[in-house]
Write a structure and sequence with these properties.
Elements (H helix, E strand, L loop, with lengths): L1 E12 L2 E12 L3 E5 L6 H8 L7 E6 L2 E3 L4 H6 L2 E4 L11 H6 L5 E2 L2 E2 L1 H14 L15 H14 L4 E5 L7 H16 L3 E5 L3 H7 L2 E6 L2 E7 L7 H9 L7 E3 L9 E12 L2 E12 L2 E6 L6 H9 L5 E7 L4 E4 L3 H4 L7 H9 L7 H14 L16 H14 L4 E5 L7 H16 L3 E5 L3 H7 L2 E6 L2 E6 L1 H5 L6 E3 L9 H14 L5
Parallel strand pairs: 3-10, 3-11, 6-9, 9-10, 16-20, 16-21, 18-19, 19-20
Antiparallel strand pairs: 1-2, 1-4, 4-5, 7-8, 11-12, 13-23, 14-15, 14-17, 21-22
Helix pairs in contact: 11-12, 11-13
Length: 509
Amino acid sequence: MNTVQFKDISISFGSCSVLENVSLNIKSNSVHCILGENGAGKSSLMKVLFGMYQPDSGEFFINGKIVHFSSPLDSINMKIGMVHQHFMLISDFTVLENVILGNEITDGLKINFSGIRSILSDIINKYNLGLDLDSKISDLSISSQQKVEILKLLFRDSEILIFDEPTAVLSPVEVKEFFKIIEEFKRNKKTIILITHKLNEVKLIADRVTVLRKGRVVYEEDITDCNIDLEKLALAIVGESRVSIAVDKSSENLTNEIVVRLNNIDLYKNSVKILDKMNLSLRKGEVLGICGVEGNGQNEIAEIITGLEKNFEGEYKNKNVNVSMVPDDRISKGMISQFNVGENIYLKNGKKFIASSELLDDFSDKTITEYDVRLTNNKASLGSLSGGNQQKVIIAREISAGNEVLIFSHPTRGVDINATAFIHSKIIEERNKNRAVLLISSDLDELISLSDRLCVLFKGKIIRTFESDELSSYKSDNKVSLTPDIEIKKEKDNQLFELLGKLMIGMAD
């Protein structure tokens, strides 16, 4: 039986067609993955289902009945819930307050907090969410915030669960935990829709996959016993434009000069020790990778190097170099959504040039061409672009500043295959220009592929550093795979991947 049916759904914004005659079925009690490049229409289709967008034409059905949603409230009343790529949480509220907001259970005129606590505690225990109802959102890790969003859906008794890029913010260990929750949803007869870019995860979790390209359905397949051709799937996503080249990491005349050093750094926040005797050096002409479960001090290292965090003990040495940073959250930290491409690029170059409409148009045109930014028109606000295209603009801005040190924090989070390949090539290109690159990521494939040295961070300490020779021993050559997600890992790669995973959660020395 089909829980959701889309029939000839079309949406346009102005002259730009976002969805064109999209028809697909979502089976009951299944995990249905929807893939496609950034801007392919995945999120737009799900926003139709969640009542955020109304289609220009076409119709859709829930459990065989045609429905018309004018707002998300209509969708919620039909037991549909959505976890957006950027969480809809109030940071100063507690877990409980966020969950019940707009859906309070009352006893007369008062909110029945004791009854609500009992209900939420039962849900947390049933799905092993491990949440403290009295914790503030601002104190939670990204993965725990995602669980709060899941708890909101379950509190509303949602039967159709939509997740937009749910694993983009999770470490490999957290992804496994998330998949356990998804499997539990299936056992409880729920229907799950996942928007994702990670092909290996599709193979692990999906019952069926649909690929959108340029607003159209171009590929559909049922998955049985993890049997799916990932190469074929990748080609369906990007068409004939698929990037399959490799970037040579070797480069001559690199100085290896240390430009940034942290010596015995201690950092406390709200009386909690975040960094513990942190020692780290960053050299010109290298990519230094930092891996670890989010919340172990990665952000604080970046903030110290960029000068955003000054309340620490220990010694920070900067050899008179300027720093650019691609932040972990592009929406809240990396851009002004109302500004267009040129205006956002100018934010980093304002000291060099006097702004003019001609200059801003020049910034915009160069970035759009060089970085293949896809948008309806050159004056479109950055907030109207897909996540991957927003990320390209932010990376273009930080690189164009020409600074000696570049920090990339989760640079390909929520980004499609082609954009990931392009961003990886840019990172290596800057490294080969003798820049010092700090790469923070939860994607182990990305870290292993790009890093010259790799540090493992656990509870605010670097517990192990893999030097260049040691990393090379796990690799067959010095080429960077631009599509590691769709390649079969060699045995040594698997060994390193497993070791890193254990180190990140303190299960190995």
